[in-house]
Amino acid sequence: MAGITIGVAGETASGERRVALTPETCRKLIARGARVRVQRGAGRQAAFTDEAYADAGAELVDDSTAALHEADVVLCVQPPTATTLQQLRDGTTLVGLLAPQSDSARGEAITARNLIAFPLERLPRTTRAQAMDVLSSQAGMAGYKAVLIAAQLAPRFFPMLTTAAGTIRPSKVLIVGAGVAGLQAIATAKRLGAQVEGFDVRPETREQIESLGGKFLDLGVSAAGEGGYARALTDEERAEQQRRLAEHLKGVDVVVCTAAVPGRPAPKIITTTMVAGMKPGSVIVDLAAETGGNCELTRPGETIESGGVTVAGPLNLASAGAVHASEMYARNVLNFVSLFVTDEASKEGRLAFDWNDELLAKTVWPERTAPT
Fold first, then answer.
1. 45 lies in a domain?
2. What is the pTM of this model?
3. Same domain membership, residue 169 and residue 102
């Protein structure tokens, strides 16, 4: 059959509601000459109906095997199981948040089936790649949802209110980490009327925090590093940072932690002792729970109380906003696969990989070299 086949199955990871293909991006891929097969119900939890996919031109199939077995390109959010990967055709191209090195069975299956895997978390963070950056788009949703969770858990109003019973002072909210998630959290907390501060060891984030209406919390320690990420602090720097932060947390009502470095355990920033010094009724929402947490008391997937302080460690928060998270993710994926699913190549039934393109060469796993 002419043209390439793109397959999308329903996500099977616990709690995952997103989908890697929306009717909008489906229509655009079909316009390039691709054939798209979608498992029935794949988009249901993100509010995309089977009828919407069919109207976009997709072929609906009853199970994941039918959706993926004949596919030249498989799109996903979470990585398929090792069993599913072993059932793909030899040489299939796989695009998603794959984390191949975090699961040996998954990595072995990718290698055994000679899959051309593009773990999108490996995408270089360059200006050209911004429209493909799934980490950023999903972090924005997570930062937004984290503040809503904090507002729900907090036994206080966020905004200042003048009532017949007197004036209610605004909550003091501290956002730890000023990456995409942190900046969205600052903006959301500010919209809710809180008194917002942002803390990051990278001094260059001051302007970004202040542009959103937050106050930059300067603890006198800088950890500016390469590539926009923080470097590791020395023992002396960390001790001074913790001393000043512990003192400041005594007056904070809500903390949202977002500090993370891809591929590494989350840095421990808020210690058990710091939590013990916070006011009863204070709340910590730790977005870094999936990689260990920024708070020592964080339990991934749980909400606990310690000395009157609530500590929440929500997982996969982007999935909680499945509609818009899926729309952003699917557009990111469309922009990435457009590097090799071109109009001409697709209609000819082939994929146009240019291994001299750094976005492909630095994202693919295992790494490949351009032919000489």
1. yes
2. 0.92
3. no
Give the active site residue among 55, 101, 104, 125. 125
Point out the catalytic residue in the list 101, 104, 130, 152: 130
Q: Are residues 275 and 175 in the same domain?
A: yes
Residue 334 forms part of a structural domain: no
Structural domain count, the chain: 2
Strands of 258-320, DSSP E: 283-286, 303-306, 309-312
C-beta of residue 23 within 8 angstroms of C-beta of residue 31 = no
Task: Say if 131 falls within a structural domain.
Answer: no
Helix (H, G, I), strand (E, B) or coil at 311: strand
Domain that holds residue 104: 5-122+339-361
Instruction: Tell me: do 250 and 286 sit in the same domain.
Output: yes
Per-residue pLDDT tens for 279-333? Answer: 999 999 999 999 999 999 999 999 999 999 999 999 999 999 999 999 999 999 9
Q: For residue range 177-218, what is the model confidence (pLDDT) as tens digits?
A: 999 999 999 999 999 999 999 999 888 899 999 999 999 999
* Residue 154 and residue 282 in one domain: yes
φ, ψ of residue 362 in degrees (nearest 5): -90, -10
In the block, residue with structure tokens 């913790």: 242
Identify whether 351 is part of a domain.
yes
Rounded to 10 degrees, the C-alpha dihedral 236/241/242/244 comes to: 130
348 and 245 fall within a common domain: no
Active-site residue flag, 78: no
Catalytic site includes residue 130:
yes
In the chain, where does DSSP find H-type helix?
23-31, 50-56, 64-68, 82-86, 104-112, 134-153, 180-191, 206-211, 235-249, 272-276, 322-337, 343-347, 358-361
d(CA 104, CA 100): 7
User: How many CB atoms sit inside 10 A of residue 2's CB?
Assistant: 9
Look up 125 and say whether it is catalytic: yes
Note the pLDDT tens digit of each residue in 226-240.
Answer: 555 566 678 888 888
Catalytic residue among 50, 229, 238, 299: 229
